Amino acid sequence: MDNKTKLILSFYFLINIITVSIIDKIPCMEPNYLNQGINILKIEKTDINLSPLYSILIASLFNLTESLLIATSLTFVFFSTLMAYFVYKFTELNYGKGPGIIALILLFFFPISSVSIIGYSHSVIVSAAFLFGFIYFISNFRISLNNKYLLASFIFALVSVLTRPETLFVIFLVIIYNLFSLIISKQKLKGGLLISFMIFGISSGLMLHKELVKSASQEQNNIGVFTKSKYSYMTFIHTYSMRYANAIDDELAIKYSEAHIGTPESNNFSIARAISKNYTQFFSNIVFNIKSTIELFGKPILIPFYFFIFIGGAFFVFEQSSKSATVLLLLIIGNIVPVLIFHPEPRYLLPSAVAILILCSVGMSALSNKNKVFSIIIISGINIIFYIRYAVIFSDITLSRCQ
């Protein structure tokens, strides 16, 4: 990485520090993560409702800083910058240095990766950092067949999933795609076997994680791979409270879902059992969530509309980098599918938004130098306006980011 790129990345790091200073809030779920993490570090039995890995991270930083605000702020600043680094590296690897730098610049004041995450859900940015690291490393492995990239992609994939379980679907799609890509390119023996080993390794890691969750849990019933099944089930039925009451509320979710799929207890907090009881309602939820997701993609808090204008330009270079374009498409699809099953929120769609940003940067790179610079200046200027707008809204001390 040259000095110019390091300077741009350092400026992004500085913007993150300014952002956490403006918002100046502890994410609403962070105290729950902290309490769970402290109990885990003390080797005390506790209710595992949230990601144990992220809980341990927050609890460890809290023990070092003695401030939850500082701990969560450090988490955001470091991992947001790490995500930007891997976005740059992936874009540079597949499309060249120019698009990589454009992607970095566009990330500066990109609302979904800055003010719309700060003070709300830092586990999302941590998982996204490892997700884009995984995508970069496995793409590098596909190109070079260097074992160190496969090992790195395995580690990053596992950490991403254990931080935010919904990334498992994205990672599965990307691994399968790379497996078939290597087979088609006649690298069947080495590439196929190694990626198969990676699938086995991730599966083994998840099974081990389930046993660790069970051993740390106060309650031994309804233990899932990542957390207690009850928490996942409640997240699943939130679509009912959103459909009928336009709110994310546990009591309302139970009230409205009971008539269609029964009580949580009657389903033993099993999402699969709840779905099998009423496929019609499940597909109604999917349709509702598709509509909500489309509406979110039209809002500047997720993807400002002007980003889509430049995606068409990316097709000029897709012929050279069709495999990386496919990976980005799988990233978007794999990110959206779990959202449709559970419920959409802007923060859950962060990976899709960043993938679209990469495509936008590639499209911009196809422009002439004069138009390229002009477009970057205009988009960055509008991004700053939206950034300031959301910074003012989300820094309001009366605003609960959990609502």
How do the strands and helices of this protein lay out in sequence?
Blueprint: H1 3-23, H2 30-41, H3 52-65, H4 68-95, H5 97-107, H6 122-144, H7 147-163, H8 167-184, H9 188-216, H10 229-245, H11 250-261, H12 271-277, H13 279-296, H14 315-318, H15 322-341, H16 350-365, H17 369-394
Commentary on this structure:
The protein has 17 helices and no strands. With 403 residues, the chain is an all-alpha fold. Helix 6 (122-144) packs antiparallel against helix 7 (147-163) and helix 8 runs antiparallel to helix 15 (322-341).
What descriptors fit this protein?
globular, mainly alpha, 403 residues, 73% helix, 17 helices
Sequence stretches where pLDDT stays below 50 over 5 or more residues: none
Helicity, in percent? Answer: over 70%
For the largest beta-sheet, the strand count, sense and barrel status come to: none
Distance between the termini: 41 Å
What amount of the residues lies in strands?
Answer: under 5%
Oligomerization = single chain
Structural class: mainly alpha
Total count of helical runs of at least 4 residues: 17
Our Rg estimate from Cα atoms comes to: 21 Å
- What count of structural domains? 1
Apparent shape: globular
Order of helices and strands: HHHHHHHHHHHHHHHHH
Mean pLDDT score? 83
Give the number of DSSP strands. 0
Report a brief summary of the structure.
This protein has 403 residues and is mainly α. Helices cover 73% and strands 0% of the residues. Helix 1 packs parallel to helix 5, helix 8 runs antiparallel to helix 15 and helix 10 (229-245) crosses helix 11.
